[in-house]
Design a protein that fits this description.
It is a single chain. The chain has 386 residues and is mostly helical. 80% of the residues lie in helices and 0% in strands. The chain has helices spanning 2-7, 12-29, 36-65, 70-95, 109-118, 132-157, 161-170, 179-212, 216-240, 246-266, 271-286, 288-297, 304-331, 337-383. The chain is globular. Mean pLDDT is 81; it is low at 98-120, 164-172 and 382-386.
Length: 386
Amino acid sequence: MIGGVLLDCMNQFLLLGLSMLATTVGLYLTPFCKQAVLLIVMMSVFGVSFGALDTGGNVLILALWGDKSPPHMQALHFSFALGAFLAPLLAKLALGPTVSADNHTEPDFLPAALNASSGAASDPLLAAPHDMNLLWAYASIGTYILVVSLFIFALFFMKSSRQTKSTASAQQSRRAQYHKALLCLLFLFFFFYVGAEVTYGSYLFSFATTHVGMDEREAAGLNSIFWGTFAACRGLAIFFASCLRPATMIVLSNVGSLASCLCLVLFDRSPLCLWIATSVYGASMATTFPSGVSWIEQYTTVSGKSAAFFVIGGTLGEMSIPAVIGILQRQYPDLPVVLYICLGSAICTAIIFPVMYKLATLPLNHHRKRNRKNKDQKALPSSFGL
């Protein structure tokens, strides 16, 4: 919400650069946090900066490239997917092997923990971490983001934003007749899509081990397949976006999501079906969000507040749907609640998009009919020789 308001009030490059600079400071300070309150503050800084980056990145792509933005939008979201796929692997390499659980079951562990908690009030706010690998992991990512923020600040000082503002002002005249209704429907569309994406990726490991009976190594591989096909399909979408319209890509994604979720529900205990359907589901979910942003730009101008509105829809789905599934799964442990919710979300997105498409093209059809009627009226007297 804050990022959407600020995007309409200040330079977009400056806002993105400040957001990444705040992320850098938070990453540098997180390993040194020794109090929970300070760590909560750092996580809040991450949340605000990530929200501004998510909204600002989409708006900036649309402002720079306009109608030619679909390949660039797919490239932007491919970087998200690639980072989400590589970050856990790099973190595992940086942190090394995890500590064995046997070390936490010794008889003297509980008194030690109580003593540590009783003396927590005297701990300093900041102190060097015991594990230096943790420090270097955060410091390396923070340095990388710092370098990127310097490039964005360089664009700001080169006055490149003047072209962005002129492009955005030139597009202000394009506003759909049902602008607010389209944004509300896109809010719901992203609510169900992002919620299902995060839900399946989060619960897939637990579902495979408890419901299907896979061992942990197979379940981890299944989770990697989902995010791997997700990232790979977003990379391919960069090239497909230049020859396929965003609406076509959304329809293909909806069909693939419906088919894979239906197979998962019907054959929920089949490991082979789980592997195949998970791959298809990950590939189908990949292009929906960037295609949706590019699609709405064809019919109405997306400002900072507009982008913030439908991004909030995706964020609320990411927050609420996994929480609801956790509650329902606890009450019905024998049912594949995760699959039912994902299938329901796929049905909702498949219903909402045709309604959005009809609503977006309705003013255009009326305009064409009106022009055709005017042409017929002008041609009528000449046909009688009057």
